[in-house]
Specification:
Blueprint: H1 2-65, H2 68-82, H3 85-112, H4 114-121, H5 127-153, H6 157-181, H7 186-211, H8 225-247, H9 249-257, H10 260-273, H11 278-296, H12 300-333, H13 344-359, H14 363-368, H15 373-398, H16 400-426, H17 436-455, H18 463-480, H19 485-498
Helix pairs in contact: 1-3, 1-5, 1-6, 1-8, 1-10, 1-11, 1-19, 2-3, 2-5, 2-8, 2-11, 3-5, 4-5, 5-6, 5-7, 6-7, 8-15, 9-15, 9-16, 10-12, 10-13, 10-16, 11-12, 12-13, 12-17, 12-18, 13-16, 15-16, 17-18
Length: about 500
C-alpha cells in the first residue's frame, strides 16, 4: 500500500515535472536564441548596458512581489487541500492585488530616479533609457509572475510554465526580430520587452480566471492577513536578500566597478551556466506544493523518499551538462560571438558552483515550505554578505573572473548549509547508493571524451558531434549500471506525457 501511494505521488511529480521540464527546455531554447541574436546584433558593450539594466530591474521586480508569490503556493496549496475555498480566494486576491499595486508605485519611483541610478551610481549615461523603458514593463511582468505561481497551486504546470517561460520570451523574440528588421537596435529590444510583458500579462489574467473562476465570483473571501504577512515578509527577506546579495550582486557590482563590455561578457557566462538549473527548477516547481501538502499532513516518510528520488533525477540530468561545459566552454560561449569567447573560464567556474546547487536538490524549498524560512533567511544573509565581500575584493583584481569565483564559492557554501539544515531539522538527506550511478557514468564518459578530444584536431562545429557522443555514452553507462523501479515509473510517465496532447488547447472550455 505504501509503495502504491509513493508510486502515485511519483507519477504526479513526473506528470507536472515533464510539463515543467519541456516548458523550461522550450523557454531556455527561446531565450538562448534571443540572447544570441542580441549579442551578435548589439555587440558586447551595448548588450552589456541592456544586461545591466535588466539585472537591476530583476532586483526591483523581486522587491515589488514582496514574497507573495510564495504565499500563494504555500497557503493556497494548504487551503485547497483542506477545501477552504473562502480562505483560498482571500489568499489569491490579497497577494495579487498587493503585489500589482506595489509594482505600479515602484515603477513610478524608478522612472523619476533613473538619472541618479544610471549616471551617479553606475556612471553609465547610456543606461538611462534602458532603466526607464524597463520600468514601464514592471507592473505587467509582476502580474505575469503572480499568475504563473497561482497556477502551481492547482498543479497546472502547463499554465504556469508556458506563461512565464515560453509565451513571454517567445513574444519578445518575435517583436525583437521585427524591430531589428526595421533598424531599431537597443530601443527595439526595450520596446519588445514592454510589448511582450503587456500581452503576456493580459493572457495570464485570462488563464487565471479560466483556472479559478471563483476569483471574480460572489464567493466571500476570508483574509488571513497576519499569517500571510508574517510568512511573506520572512520569505521576502530571504528571497530578496538572495536575489540582491547572491543572484544579481555579481553583475550589479561588476557594472559599478567595470565596463559595460565586461558586464556583457560575464552575463553571457551566467546565463549559459544556469542552463544546468533547468532540471532543478522544473521539478521544484511541482515538488514545492507537494512538500507543503505532505508536511502539513505529517507524511514525513513519503516526503523523505520523494526528496531523495527528485534529487537523483535532477543530478542525473544536470551532471552531463556540467561535464560538457568543462569540455567545450569556449566553443559554447563562442556561439554568442567571437568577442565573448574570453568568458569561457567564467562559465566553468560558475557551473561548478551551480553543480553544488543541483546536487543537493530542493533544500531551499524544503526549508521554506515547512516553516523553517527564518533559518533560510539567516543562511542567505550570511552567505550573501560573504558574496558581497568577495566581489569587493576580487572584481577590482580579476574583473568578471573575480565575480565568477565569488558567486561560485558563495552559492556552494549556501547550499551546503541548507543541506545541513534539512538534516538537522528533519533528519532527511537526499542521497542513497543509487546516486553514485549517474556520478560514475558521467565520470567515465568524461574521461573517454576528454582523451578523444585531446587526441584529434577539432575544427568548426564538429565539437557538437562530441557532445552528442558524450550523451549517448552517458546513457549507455546509466543503463549498464541498472535502472531503479522509480525510474521505470518515470520513463513510462514521460513516454505518455511527451506525446502530442490534442486536448491541451488553452482556449477549450
Amino acid at each position: 500500500m505504501k509503495t502504491k501511494k509513493i508510486e502515485d505521488i511519483t507519477k504526479k511529480i513526473v506528470k507536472g515535472g515533464s510539463i515543467s521540464f519541456l516548458g523550461h527546455i522550450a523557454g531556455k531554447g527561446i531565450k538562448f536564441i534571443l540572447e544570441v541574436i542580441l549579442t551578435r546584433t548589439l555587440g558586447a558593450s551595448v548588450y552589456g548596458l541592456y544586461a545591466l539594466g535588466n539585472n537591476f530591474m530583476e532586483i526591483v521586480r523581486g522587491f515589488s512581489n514582496f514574497g507573495f508569490h510564495f504565499s500563494i503556493v504555500r497557503f493556497g496549496s494548504v487551503y485547497r487541500g483542506e477545501g477552504d475555498q473562502e480562505s483560498l480566494k482571500g489568499t489569491f486576491l490579497f497577494s495579487i492585488l498587493f503585489s500589482f499595486t506595489a509594482s505600479i508605485i515602484i515603477s513610478i519611483l524608478i522612472y523619476f530616479f533613473s538619472d541618479i541610478i544610471a549616471i551617479n551610481i553606475f556612471k553609465k549615461p547610456g543606461l538611462l533609457v534602458v532603466i526607464r523603458m524597463l520600468s514601464f514593463a514592471l507592473p505587467f511582468y509582476a502580474f505575469l509572475l503572480m499568475a504563473s505561481y497561482s497556477a502551481r497551486v492547482f498543479r497546472k504546470m502547463d499554465y504556469a510554465v508556458n506563461l512565464e517561460f515560453v509565451i513571454h520570451p517567445l513574444l519578445t523574440l518575435i517583436v525583437v526580430s521585427i524591430f531589428f528588421a526595421i533598424g531599431l537596435k537597443l530601443k527595439g529590444v526595450l520596446f519588445a520587452f514592454f510589448t511582450s510583458s503587456v500581452i503576456s500579462a493580459l493572457f495570464g489574467f485570462y488563464l487565471l480566471i479560466k483556472l479559478y473562476p471563483d476569483l471574480i465570483s460572489k464567493l466571500n473571501p476570508k483574509f488571513h492577513l497576519k499569517k500571510i504577512f508574517v510568512y511573506s515578509s520572512t520569505v521576502f527577506l530571504s528571497g530578496f536578500s538572495s536575489l540582491l546579495l547572491l543572484s544579481r550582486a555579481d553583475r550589479i557590482m561588476l557594472g559599478i566597478m567595470d565596463s559595460s563590455k565586461n558586464v556583457g561578457i560575464y552575463n553571457v557566462g551566467v546565463l549559459t551556466a544556469h542552463q544546468m538549473s533547468v532540471f532543478l527548477y522544473s521539478l521544484n516547481a511541482i515538488f514545492s506544493p507537494i512538500i507543503a501538502d505532505l508536511f502539513s499532513k505529517g507524511k514525513t516518510e513519503k516526503l523523505r523518499e520523494l526528496f531523495q528520488t527528485v534529487t537523483r533525477w535532477v543530478f542525473t540530468f544536470s551532471f552531463p551538462v556540467f561535464l560538457n561545459f568543462m569540455l567545450f566552454a569556449k566553443d559554447i560561449i563562442g556561439l554568442f560571438g567571437s568577442e565573448f569567447r574570453v568568458g569561457g573560464n567564467a562559465l566553468i567556474i560558475l557551473s561548478a558552483g551551480i553543480l553544488v546547487n543541483v546536487s543537493v536538490g530542493a533544500v531551499g524549498f524544503m526549508l521554506n515550505m515547512t516553516g523553517k524560512e527564518r533559518f533560510e533567511l539567516i543562511n542567505v544573509l550570511i552567505f550573501g554578505t560573504v558574496n558581497i565581500v568577495l566581489n569587493l575584493i576580487l572584481i577590482p583584481r580579476l574583473s568578471y573572473l573575480g565575480a565568477a569565483i565569488s558567486t561560485a564559492i558563495s552559492l556552494a557554501m549556501l547550499n551546503i548549509s541548507r543541506l545541513l539544515g534539512v538534516y538537522r531539522f528533519f533528519k532527511m538527506q537526499p542521497y542513497n547508493k543509487n546516486f553514485l550511478k549517474p556520478f560514475f557514468s558521467g565520470l567515465i564518459t568524461y574521461i573517454i571524451i576528454y582523451i578523444f578530444k585531446t587526441s584529434i584536431n577539432i575544427k568548426g562545429f564538429w565539437w557538437l558531434a562530441l557532445v552528442l557522443l558524450f550523451l549517448l555514452l552517458y546513457l549507455f553507462f546509466l543503463i549498464l549500471m541498472g535502472i531503479e523501479e522509480n525510474d521505470f515509473i518515470i520513463i513510462t510517465a514521460l513516454k505518455n506525457k511527451i506525446r502530442i496532447q490534442k486536448n491541451s488547447n488553452y482556449f477549450k472550455k
